[in-house]
Specification:
Helix 6 crosses helix 7 (115-126). The protein has helices spanning 2-5, 8-28, 33-44, 55-76, 79-84, 86-110, 115-126, 130-140, 146-172, 174-179, 184-204, 206-215, 219-239, 244-254, 261-286, 289-294, 296-320, 325-334, 340-351, 357-384, 412-423, 435-440, 456-461, 477-490, 503-511, 522-535, 540-563, 567-570, 598-604; strands at 405-408, 428-432, 447-450, 469-472, 495-500, 516-519. The longest helix is centred in the middle third of the chain and has 28 residues, at 357-384. By secondary structure, it is mainly alpha-helical. It is elongated. A 6-stranded parallel β-sheet has the order 3-2-1-4-5-6, sandwiched between helices. It contains 29 helices and 6 strands.
Length: 605
Amino acid sequence: MTGIANSQLLQAVALLGAAVLVVPVFRALKLGAVLGYLVAGVLVGPFVLGWFTDPEAILGLAELGVVMFLFVIGLEMRPAHLWSLRSTIYGLGLTQLLACGAALTGVAWLLGAPPRVAFVGAMGFVLTSTAIVMQLLSESGQLAQPSGQKVVAILLLEDLIIVPLLAVVAWMSPTHESSAHGVPWASALTGVGCLLVLLVAGRWLLDPLFRILARSKVREVLCAGALLVVLGAALLMQLGGLSMALGAFLAGVLLSRSSFRHQLEADIEPFRGLLLGLFFLGVGMALDLDVVREHFLSVLLGVLAMMITKTAAIYGVARSLGDGHAEALDRALLMPLGGEFAFVLYSSAAATGLMSQEDNARFTAIVVLSMAAAPVVHATARRFMPARRVRPRAAGVPPGLSGSMLMVGFGRFGQVVSQSLLARDVDVTVIDTDVEMVEAATRFGFKIYYGDGTRLDVLDAAGADKARVIAICVDSHTTANTIIDIAKERYPGAVLMVRTYDREHSLRMAAQGVKLHFRETFESALRFGSRALMELGVSPGEADEIAGIVRQRDAERFARELEGIDWATAGLANFQPPQPTPFTKPTHEGRTLHAPTVDESASSS
């Protein structure tokens, strides 16, 4: 029994079981998955059930989740996006960060922490939980509003600031000071050299590497390449004496404008989510409940003091920069908590000797309790706050240009479709699995990315949940059917437009509720027939009229064929393909022009 109890398999089952049982409960209570992981870690850790006695062993592996988290953040840091939010990020965001950092450092120092520990503890509390705040913004309907976009910009800066903060912690650590008496120039040059190697490789090698991997058409190879880049960049920075998180972040930034960005994000996401959840479980296990009991009053006082001070600082900064009372108060009550990056910062500080394990446990407990209290505080405060009036958006934007469009497939059909959209400067994102096509399509002026449209994670990464129109222009009806099934279930608000292979495919799409489906050869065949009539002496007007009649009769027949199928009972499997029947009966009977050969007779029989 002892061997079974200590087996790694049993530990893995225990971790997964705790997460599966606890996290959904916290999500249902709208407290967030992060807090659920932390509580699950506390339960299975050494101070409650005692199933795990060495949380550090798990944290060592789970730190890769933080590395991958920062890689995904780097993928989102496109220069254009940063530039559009520059005034909010570097004005409001930086001012709020500095003000909160200074105020919270003072509070932590007054509560008895040494100056360096107070600084680290305060900066960890400054980094607001992105997961919890984004959830609260979404639930309150503020995410797309100007006030919500300001909060998003501030969170963006806080995501960015974790990288230099980790570097500052490493610089302030006693281990760094003791090693500074050796050969500082050698270690500094090593770090700079590793950084330059990463920048050069990212600039000239990564995109060609993924083009080669994509041509193999093996999904596992591309996924392995993504993991290689993330872990290789982290290892390179570690060899240079720098943060692994810094390497992953820089690799993400270098790939943020790559055509493979969405595919990379989709491939990394499952590993990131699992390992990051494991990291939070490890943090929960490492929470020393004995220390919390011994310092219960100081922990409780720390939670109240930190949350009140951060609320006051956020409100003061907002008012000083011109925001109204209601908006400033709402933002202050939305962001008075610590966040996930605090655990990363505290773990790094404890590992380098800058912060004791007791201080780590105390500050971690303060952050965890603030994350638990913040949703309750925000929900309670909103009940007593007057409803804010939302200003309508400015008029004058041409219809169809305010939303976005996702096009799946950029072959001969999709390229023609794109010309009309390009003429009106419509914001279109295109994904395709043909590497050569992705490379050649860049000259069209669209955002072309490599990605498999039959994968839900790729569609999510490409922004399908925000698209007003999803145009499915692939040349395979099987692929189109798969994408339709996903889109109808996951993106009900998007308008679906489908290129259909033939009449049978159109009937299937109509039966599934797709209203906008277009046979790829129908209109071109009508134009071909009209031109043939004109070449035979028919006037252009009459040729167009005949084409209109054929189009109308085809629509009527299509409707009759659709009504004649009992889709509820027969199902798609019993669908009978339509028989090609002419709209106008030929005036001459058909006749054989030559006798069939033996081979033709055999094949016809």
